[in-house]
Amino acid sequence: MESVVIQGVELRLTPPDEMRWQWVGRQELKRQLLAAWAVLDEQDHALSPRLVGKPGVGKTTLASAAARALDIPLYVFQATMDTRPEDLLVTPVITDGQKLRYTASPLVSAMIKGGVCVLDEGNRMSERNGPRSRRCSIGGATSSPWSPASRSTRTATSASARR
Predict the structure, then answer these.
(1) Contact 106, 76 (CB under 8 A)
(2) Could you tell me which residues belong to the region Disordered (predicted)?
């Protein structure tokens, strides 16, 4: 397993996911996703589109095909209702020798390696544990930036800043 040292701490990276599925859907969708990830200038940042649709329509396959077209690694983070915000970053693990080892999430690994991370089923994260727990208060009214999600979603984030 590949690792990097950041500020004196060894961080084990999650390996990229190997998905050899073929995208058989509309090529226009793939072109749109590739356009969202396009970086034309060093000052540009790739967009992080949210792919929304019913289960099984190919959201993860679309992201995989787009990443493969760009020849960049794909990392998939499978969210559940038990996923906590810290799970999106680094997980400390106690090894057999009673030492602490840190493992990067697929998101952090994609950021370090310059890949694409798919936050699969992000809508399953509970409001209490996930990013939806952030609230905004304006003029005494409190609201959440996240609407309740009744559909399956994928957030395909291109962590590659120079592709």
Answers:
(1) yes
(2) 123-163
Query: Alpha carbon of 99 to those of 1, 14, 83, 96: distances in Å?
Result: 17, 19, 24, 7
Q: What phi-psi label fits residue 58: left (phi over 0), alpha (psi between -120 and 50 degrees) or beta?
A: left
* pLDDT class of 122 with cuts at 50, 70, 90: confident
Residue 77: how many other CB atoms lie within 10 Å: 23
pLDDT at site 20: 82
Residues shown for the chain: 163
| Plot region of 46 (φ>0 → left; ψ -120 to 50 → alpha; else → beta) | beta
| Torsion angle of the four alpha carbons 8, 12, 13, 17, in this order, in degrees rounded to the nearest 10 | 180
